[in-house]
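Our collaborator T.R. sent over the components below with a one-line note: 'Predict the complex.' Nothing else. No constraints on interfaces, no templates requested, no preferences about which chain binds where. So this is a plain run: every listed entity goes in together, and whatever single assembly comes back becomes the starting point for the next discussion.
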Amino acid sequence: MNTLSLNGRAMTTRAPTLQALLIERGYDLGAACACALNSTFVPRSQWPLQALHDGDRVDVIAPITGG
Amino acid sequence: MHTTPWTVAGVSLGSRLLLGTARYPSPQVLSEAVQASGTQVLTVGLRRLQPEQGGGNAFWQRVRDTGCHVLPNTAGCHSAQEAITLAHMAREIFGTAWIKLEVVGDDYTLQPDPFGTVEAARTLVREGFVVFAYTTDDLVTAQRLRDAGCAAIMPWAAPIGTGRGPLNPYALATLRARLRDAVLIVDAGLGLPSHAAQVMEMGFDAVLLNTAVAQAGDPVRMAQAFAHAVTAGRLAFNATPMPVQRTAQASTPTVGMPFWHEN
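Returned assembly:
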């Protein structure tokens, strides 16, 4: 069991990879979104392979309006 | 309503008005304002996604439906590293190497951080990004951004969202004079079409707006008004305005003036 920060919120998970975490948390993998792990971009192709560790910080972002 | 085409990052554009997509009364009004403005470039943002929100697909589809080029921003980033990471995320989501680089230096004025912006610009250009750098009207910062290889340098006219218009026309004119070959786009602080016309008359290549249109009582009409102003300003620049005179100069010829006699 790892304790992570997901979008700034602390949580615990057994998900071994980034993609497993996204599925566990109910994200739509087909959505227009991108991920960073510990403030480093993780390409979508790497999600299934990207291992998670205790203390990791995960950010998931999506398009919004902007100026 | 277009003037002669111009080129940024190797792309030829007819409209010299770039438009933001935030703070409109509704998505429908946004679409109508985009159409009324004639813009060909829209800015978009990125924010954290919670799973229950379902993603930004609907908004992204609406933007794609406009057929405009997309310019993602790094708004809210406070360091070069944050901006670089967000640029990579934007490139994957939007499928474009264009990035509007913003690194906030002061949370109260939202003044860009010149050091972080230049640092991020150098890295992003090396990594193949097409950087549109948001900055102040500081000449030396603009020169560093040009030297870094930015596709466009985007000085503010006034702090973002203020609508105050050009606070320092002298600095803006100096930028234009000293960076003759750079693409310069005035971004932020414009409130009225006359502000846009003013900077276009100085020779700026384009303007980027958001709040002035989105928060107008009638955003669609205001988008049209800005489109006219941008075109008028560019036409005026190309027409070479008359030199300013120190004293009155009669416009009606004085030779042969009636009732005048030499005493």
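Summary for T.R.: The mean pLDDT of chain B is 95.
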